[in-house]
Amino acid sequence: MEPQIQYCKTSDGVSIAYWTMGEGGVPLIMSAPFGWSHISNELRIPELVSWYERLASTRTLIRYDQRNQGLSDRGVERVSEGALASDIEALIERLGASQVDLLGFYGSGAPMLRVAAEHLSVRRLVVWNLSVNGPAIFTNPRWRAMRGLVESDWVLFTETFAGVTFGWSGAEAHQWARFTRRAVSPEDAALIMDALAKVDWSPWLARILVPTLVLRDPMNISLAEGKWADIPDARLVDVRERAMAYHNQAGLRAVEEFLSDRQQTPAVTAPSHGAASGTAIILFADIANSTALTEDLGDAAFRDKARELDEALRRAITSNGGTAIDGKLLGDGVLATFGAAREAIACAAACHAAANNVDLAIHVGVHAGDVIRESNNVYGGAVNIASRVANEAAAGETLVSATVRDLARTSAGVSFEDRGERELKGVGEPVRVFAVREG
Hints:
The protein is an alpha/beta fold. Helix content is 38%, strand content 22%. The chain is built from 15 helices and 16 strands. α5 (141-152) packs antiparallel against α6 and α11 packs across α12. The longest helix is centred in the C-terminal third of the chain and has 21 residues, at 299-319. The model is unreliable at 221-226, 262-276 and 327-331 (pLDDT under 50).
């Protein structure tokens, strides 16, 4: 049975189309294997469907159309770095899973680098022929010439793009060109290419601490362009077959082995911070209204402010006896664990003061429960609840779960205002939350 098309909304109100196939396992979110995306028309390509079914045989596979492509909203002018990443963030939010894996191709998959660097739920990342440095790729003379064809001769552009990018000719190139014309309009293609030409995703690489598989084949750009060595736990696989991914059996085997829970322990492991698996007090803090701020300030200015705040939050965490989870920044904030509830609550107050100092506001959530530590990351339902509690907090506010309130009621030197039970996404039972009040 053909998978059902569904929709989710991004933080800036864009409708993103997606379908799911298979069930169980850690969900795998995949960008367009062709570069351009149309999740409905892809289901008319038997070889591609067989490839999807193989990937979905042991897990839930999620394919989506990026904004301005396929069945997702078209004509969206918001195509900044953060906006492109928000397409994937919306899917993660909709899934409500504690862990997800990501598989990204070409330029359309590049936003996954930012998501993998920032998001708590990302477990493993696979990149296949990924285009990382937009200014270096999309501004060279060949690309500038092709970019000029978008407005002047859209059919010629799509036919040429197939030959230049994949080395195809004849019927295969014509088929792909027709698919492209259904997947994207010339106006949207121009928006996307011009946006990608401005973004260098490579600064995110050093912040990706999840295990990462880098696949290259003869159609790929050079290794130096990607600076893959900046990823602490990156594994490079050169696949000799010059073929699209769904024809590339060696590449598919590498992906399946990497994503399998039976794989060997990574050769490079980030240093461990904090205690072993067990109970922890979990603090989650992120910047309020970050999408609007990014649009107002611009990506670079907002990132500078966020980086300054990040450093201040980490100092607050350390000075209050906590451990910042370096490998898991979420959105524009931090995740930390503590041994005592009073320490986490004191840290929350210090975090709000740090945000005020840089003219930003944060919302903070604190929960207590068992966590699983893998390398320098923490996982588990308790971590998910802490993030959901933070989402319920207003700008400048700290909310704690009833568990934390009970632990800190006589030791934290604060009072608690009952805000009632909340239905939290991805959490089976309602959670009672309390707002922290000084004195």
